[in-house]
C-alpha cells in the first residue's frame, strides 16, 4: 500500500514508510551521461513507494541499495517492502536497478508498469563478491522497453569497493527473482545472467519476455552460475534456466 510519509527524493537513506509520487526529474544543466546522478535511490529503507513519475538522469533512474561492503554489513539495515510503479524515463545506464551496494540486504521488492526508453540497460540487478548481503523475493513486471542496449542484466561482478578492507569471502545470496511481461523494441542484446561461481544465483524466473532485437546478427543470452526457469522468452533464454526446481519455482511464482 503506497501511503505514508513523503520523503525528499534527494535523500532516501534509512527512510521508513516513504512516498515519492508525481515527480518530474531531469538531469538539467548536467551532461546527459553524468555519472552518479541517479534519480531515486532508496538505501537501507523500509516500506517505500515510488510511483507516477517521469525521470531523466545521467545514471540509473531508480536504484535500490542497502550499504556498501563492510560498512553496509556493519550498519545492517536492509531495504525491504519497496514498490515502484508507473515510472517513465530515460538515461544512459539502467531504467530500474537493484544494487550494486546490497550489503545490508534487499528483499520484497515489486516494480511494475515501467516505460523505459533510450537507456543502456532496461532492468539491472547487480552485486559483487565482497558485498555479502542478499537479494531476495524480487518481482519486476509489465515493462516496456524502447531503444535500449541490453534488455536485462543480472550480474555478480558489478561495482567496485570503497577500500581494500572488504571481505573477499563475503558472498551475496541472490534467490527468487521473477521478471515477467517485458516487451522491447529496438533492443541490441537480450540480456545476461551471470552469477558467482561460489554463490550461484538460484530460482531466477523469466516469463513472457518478447524482445525485438535490432542487431543485424542475432545476439544470444549469456548465462553462467545460475539456475531457474524460462517460459515464453524470445529470443530463447539460456539452457541454464531449465532445471526442474527452477521451473517449479517459475510456474508457482506466476
Automatic annotation (TrEMBL):
A GO term, aspect molecular function: polygalacturonase activity
UniProt cross-references to InterPro entries, sorted A to Z: GH28_Enzymes, Glyco_hydro_28, Pectin_lyas_fold, Pectin_lyase_fold/virulence
Protein name (Swiss-Prot/TrEMBL): Polygalacturonase
Gene3D superfamilies noted in UniProt: Single-stranded right-handed beta-helix, Pectin lyase-like (2.160.20.10)
Assigned protein family: Belongs to the glycosyl hydrolase 28 family.
GO BP, sorted A to Z: carbohydrate metabolic process
Organism ancestry: Eukaryota, Viridiplantae, Streptophyta, Embryophyta, Tracheophyta
Superkingdom, taxonomy of origin: Eukaryota
Keyword Hydrolase attached: yes
Keywords carried by this UniProt record: Glycosidase, Hydrolase
Amino acid at each position: 500500500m503506497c501511503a505514508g510519509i513523503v520523503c525528499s527524493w534527494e535523500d532516501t537513506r534509512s527512510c521508513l514508510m516513504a512516498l515519492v509520487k508525481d515527480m518530474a526529474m531531469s538531469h538539467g544543466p548536467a551532461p546527459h551521461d553524468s555519472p552518479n546522478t541517479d534519480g531515486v535511490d532508496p538505501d537501507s529503507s523500509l516500506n517505500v513507494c515510488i510511483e507516477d513519475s517521469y525521470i531523466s538522469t545521467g545514471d540509473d533512474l531508480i536504484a535500490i541499495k542497502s550499504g556498501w561492503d563492510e560498512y553496509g554489513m556493519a550498519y545492517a539495515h536492509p531495504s525491504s517492502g519497496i514498490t515502484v510503479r508507473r515510472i517513465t524515463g530515460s538515461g544512459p545506464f539502467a531504467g530500474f536497478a537493484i544494487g550494486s551496494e546490497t550489503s545490508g540486504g534487499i528483499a520484497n521488492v515489486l516494480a511494475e508498469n515501467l516505460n523505459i526508453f533510450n537507456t543502456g540497460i532496461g532492468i539491472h540487478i547487480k552485486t559483487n563478491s565482497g558485498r555479502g548481503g542478499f537479494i531476495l523475493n524480487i518481482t519486476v513486471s509489465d515493462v516496456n522497453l524502447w531503444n535500449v542496449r541490453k534488455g536485462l542484466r543480472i550480474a555478480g561482478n558489478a561495482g567496485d569497493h570503497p577500500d581494500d578492507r572488504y571481505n573477499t569471502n563475503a558472498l551475496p545470496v541472490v534467490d527468487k527473482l521473477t521478471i515477467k511481461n517485458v516487451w522491447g523494441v529496438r533492443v541490441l542484446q537480450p540480456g545476461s545472467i551471470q552469477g558467482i561461481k561460489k554463490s550461484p544465483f538460484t530460482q531466477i524466473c523469466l516469463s513472457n519476455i518478447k524482445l525485438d532485437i535490432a542487431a543485424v546478427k542475432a545476439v544470444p543470452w549469456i548465462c553462467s552460475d545460475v539456475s531457474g526457469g524460462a517460459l515464453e522468452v524470445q529470443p530463447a533464454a539460456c539452457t541454464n534456466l531449465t532445471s526442474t526446481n527452477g521451473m517449479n519455482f517459475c510456474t508457482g511464482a506466476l
